[in-house]
Amino acid sequence: MSRGVYILAIGNPTYAQWAVNLAASVKYYSPLLHITLLHDGKKIVEDFIFDELVQINLCDYTDKKGMFQPGKAKLNIY
After folding, report:
1. How many helices and strands in the chain, by DSSP H and E?
2. Which H or E element spans position 22?
3. CA–CA separation, 40 vs 31, rounded Å?
C-alpha cells in the first residue's frame, strides 16, 4: 500500500510558504512519505521538498466572478 499526503496551497502567497514548512516537517519525521503539493501556479522557490507538484485549474477554486472559494477547492481535489 502506498502512503502519502496532499498539501493544498492556493490563494494567498503565504500559504505556499506554510506548505513548504509543513512539508519539511513531515519529511523530517517521515522521510519516505510521498508529499504532493496542489497549487495555483504561483512560483514556489523551495519546490524540491515536494515529491510532486500539481497545478489545479482556476475554475476548481474560484466562483463565476473569479473570487477564491476555499470550500470549492477542497471539494474539487480529485
Report:
1. 2, 3
2. helix 14-29
3. 25
Query: Cα-flanking dihedrals φ and ψ of residue 53, to 5°?
Result: -120, 130
Task: Identify the CA nearest to 3 among candidates 30, 21, 25.
Answer: 30
Is 24 or 47 the better-scoring residue by pLDDT? Answer: 24
Confidence of residue 78 (pLDDT cuts 50, 70, 90): low
Residue 42 has φ and ψ, to the nearest 5°, of -70, 145
Q: What's the pTM?
A: 0.81
The letter for the amino acid at 78 is Y
* Residue 1 pLDDT greater than 50, yes or no: no
Q: Which of 12, 13, 23 is nearest to 46 (CA)?
A: 23
